[in-house]
Recover the amino acids of this structure.
């Protein structure tokens, strides 16, 4: 039987502190802005650069090299634009879900580019995920609030640029009365009000190598991780994403 591991993607310093206490996490995906020379367990950290590089490419290229000199060895490629920057910094490349990998051909293409592993598109069904073959490890987002929209301009603050990554405390309400939280960095992501959770459905994904837990607004990620590991059936407002119904 395939050995399957857990990974975490975090958003703030409190989550990073907790994630480092959880030995089950093979890797922890961390925004580059949170990393310093004093960050422990650097070989377990995957640097997460900004999604868009239009106004910060030179800065991020320099920043990746600085982090490599501090001892970090891994970085995430959101898109193909990140590959040259990560290679120039002599870091191991990990593929993110925004690469939109949906079949074996695209997965093997990135394997040929030297990627260590890939997070598959969350738009795939469980059947297609299990049928996808690739020579490098593949994983799926298995917990978290997925972005419904990503924008350079804030839909809340009259289209002005994001407030330097600081939460404004405001939200958007959809037609059903559900609250969508903005996640800010150099962009704004409006998060799905329902949390993706397949803790009790992991057996439906026997071919994946790792499950990614994506933490955004959670305060207690240790508790969430324990419940996920135990296979506890989720309660409240949750979704199975597109894994069982596909793209409509």
């Amino acid at each position: 039987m395939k050995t399957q591991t857990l990974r975490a993607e975090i958003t703030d310093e409190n989550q990073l502190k907790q994630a480092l206490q959880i030995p089950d996490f093979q890797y922890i995906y961390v925004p580059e802005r949170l990393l310093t020379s004093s960050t422990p367990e650097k070989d377990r950290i995957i640097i997460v650069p900004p999604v868009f590089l239009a106004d910060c490419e030179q800065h991020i290229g320099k920043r990746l090299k600085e982090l490599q000199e501090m001892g970090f060895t891994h970085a995430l490629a959101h898109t193909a634009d990140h590959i040259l920057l990560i290679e120039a910094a002599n870091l191991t490349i990990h593929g993110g879900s925004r690469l939109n990998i949906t079949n074996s051909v695209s997965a093997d293409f990135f394997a040929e580019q030297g990627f260590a592993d890939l997070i598959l598109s969350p738009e795939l069904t469980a059947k297609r995920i299990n049928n996808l073959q690739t020579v490098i490890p593949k994983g799926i987002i298995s917990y978290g609030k997925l972005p419904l929209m990503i924008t350079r301009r804030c839909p809340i603050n009259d289209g002005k640029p994001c407030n330097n990554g600081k939460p404004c405390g405001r939200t958007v309400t959809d037609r059903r009365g559900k609250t969508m939280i903005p996640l800010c960095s150099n962009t704004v992501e409006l998060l799905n009000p329902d949390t993706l959770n397949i803790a009790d459905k992991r057996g439906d994904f026997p071919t994946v190598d790792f499950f990614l837990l994506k933490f955004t607004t959670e305060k207690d990620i240790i508790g969430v991780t324990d419940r996920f590991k135990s296979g506890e059936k989720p309660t409240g407002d949750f979704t199975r994403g597109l894994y069982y119904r596909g793209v409509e």
